[in-house]
Structure formats: structure tokens, C-alpha cells
UniProtKB/TrEMBL annotation:
InterPro entries: G-protein_gamma-like_dom, GGL_sf, Ste18_fungal. PROSITE patterns: G_PROTEIN_GAMMA (PS50058). Residues 2-69 form the G protein gamma domain. This is Guanine nucleotide-binding protein subunit gamma. GO terms for cellular component: heterotrimeric G-protein complex. It is a peripheral membrane protein. Keywords: Lipoprotein, Membrane, Methylation, Palmitate, Prenylation, Transducer.
Length: 69
């Protein structure tokens, strides 16, 4: 039984060593990169943000009364 435990511990240790080798970047750099990407690329799912026709955008604010009775 102790050989099995030792083998599992060695496998876990190997997996942890592999994870240590993964390149990481600080969260501040990742968030800045994401903000820059969002500012430079148009979102086709929300066209009203980019000045397109707001009548085609279901998420744009509707003008006029849209009351349902």
C-alpha cells in the first residue's frame, strides 16, 4: 500500500512541476491587453456601441413609448 501512495505522490509532484513551468503574466498586463483589444475591435453583436443603426440592435435603448397593456 505504501508503494501505491508513493507512486501517486510522485505523479502529483510531477504534475505540479509541469504547472510551475507554465509561463504566466501579471493580471494588470492581461487586463490592459484585454482593454486594448476591446477598444480596437468592433463587437458585431452590439452594433449600437459603434454608431450603427440602433433599430437593428435589440439591446439599444428604444425611443418612444413601448408600453404593453
Amino acid at each position: 500500500m505504501s508503494e501505491t501512495k508513493l507512486r501517486k505522490m510522485n505523479e502529483q509532484n510531477d504534475r505540479l512541476k509541469e504547472q510551475l513551468e507554465i509561463q504566466r503574466i501579471p493580471v494588470s498586463d492581461a487586463s490592459k491587453s484585454l482593454i486594448d483589444y476591446c477598444k480596437s475591435n468592433h463587437d458585431t453583436l452590439v452594433p449600437s456601441v459603434w454608431g450603427s443603426n440602433k433599430t437593428q440592435d435589440p439591446f439599444a435603448e428604444q425611443s418612444g413609448c413601448t408600453c404593453c397593456v
